[in-house]
Amino acid sequence: MTSTADLLDPSSAAYKKARRQFYKATKNRPAVEQDWTPFRTAEKSFKARFPPPDLSGVLDLAQLDPSRQKEIERGVWKGSTEPFPYRRLEGCERSICVVPAVPGLVILPSYLSQEEQRQLVRWSLERQARGPNPTNLDIHYRVPNEGLWNAYIHQKTTGEEVTIVPKALDSDVVEEKSSGPRQLVDNAPASVETYESLAQTPKPPPAPSATVPPSSPSSLLYKLRWANIGWYYHWGTKQYDFSHGKGDIDRDLRHICKSAVEAVKWDQVYDATEDFDWGEDGNGWKDWGETYEPDAGIVNFYQTKDTLMAHVDRSEVCKTSPLVSVSLGNAGIFLIGGDTRDTEPVPILLRSGDVVIMSGPCRRAYHGVPRILEGTLPAHLKVGGEDWAPFAEYLETTRINVNVRQVFPKGFEAPS
Ligand SMILES: O=C(O)CCC(=O)C(=O)O
Ligand SMILES: [Fe+2]
């Protein structure tokens, strides 16, 4: 197998082969299209298999942490410790950084311990990616009650054949064959005023695909893409579906999010943005000690070729309260810009255990993940206790992101 180091070395045979293939495939195509926005141009450059992306402009704060040097060396991919201006908050117990170009963005590198990372990986697969929490696979398959991961482990340990059948086999409605590109849903930003109309928008269940074949847990595992946390998110309308009631937020996850928000000295984050209008979110950061309460989110599962395109998370009624995002497994490149795709985004290398908080002015900024960096799984996730082996094997090609939001102001009573 070709190693990451070979692919990054212009004198290696693997690099030269990739270059030949690239020139053949792109003979008449310009490297940058005229009509690409700055965000799109950045996405394209990090996504590219050839030339391998240049990470010298990517902020990589783990490099400042002496305990992570081995992890970085082994993973080969490296960013920079000074690609663009950023500032370290003073007097915090943890290393916490802000980027002046993206007000409200906070980075907490190495926030989770190795043990906390393993626990959160376990929780994501064993307990969150299963009923009653919807996952992307539930739309198309009758996933057993125990959830996909537990079915997979069951099959692995007993050798029993398990087949997961498509829902379309006994469903009255199936997905229509789509022609042309996927329809984009442009959802209205949520707010207290629009709550009523959001609640009344019909939210039909998504139709199962008529073409997916019966599959084994071990093959479906690599197609797991997301699991819902808390309030149910309806992908068809990009709105929360309040009719299902409020899903639980795991106690430990809530604690991680709340303690990350408490660890930040917000007066320093917001000292240069005094004139920001917090709108219906009142005093903003000054009240987060009392008002911040995570109530929804998503676990994203990425395989190394997956990407997450530029988007804004604007379905939450709370427009400014912290969104806490935890990275696990392989590293990824996170881009975050401004109100439109015309703002050039800053690239940040997120490694396992790093936490990012999007708050205030950048809570509705465009962001995305154009690249998962293959081969960057840290050693502490390759080995663990006795039953860690299946997690290690799955993580070898995976990045997990736990993305937690606040939909409603604390104490908000939905009008009935
Ligand atoms: O994977 C990430 O780091 C970001 C995920 C994200 O933006 C989302 O789930 O909305
Ligand atoms: Fe997002």
From TrEMBL:
Molecular function via GO: dioxygenase activity; metal ion binding
GO CC annotations on file: cytoplasm; nucleus
Location of region: Disordered: 173-215
Cofactor, free-text remark: Binds 1 Fe(2+) ion per subunit.
Cofactor(s) listed in the protein's UniProt record: Fe(2+)
Protein name in UniProt: Fe2OG dioxygenase domain-containing protein
InterPro entries assigned: Alkb, AlkB-like, AlkB-like_sf, Oxoglu/Fe-dep_dioxygenase_dom
Coiled-coil portions: none
Source organism of the structure: Coprinellus micaceus (Glistening ink-cap mushroom)
Keyword Mitochondrion: no
Keywords: Dioxygenase, Iron, Metal-binding, Oxidoreductase
Residues annotated as binding Fe cation: 311, 313, 367
Domain Fe2OG dioxygenase, first and last residues per copy: 293-408
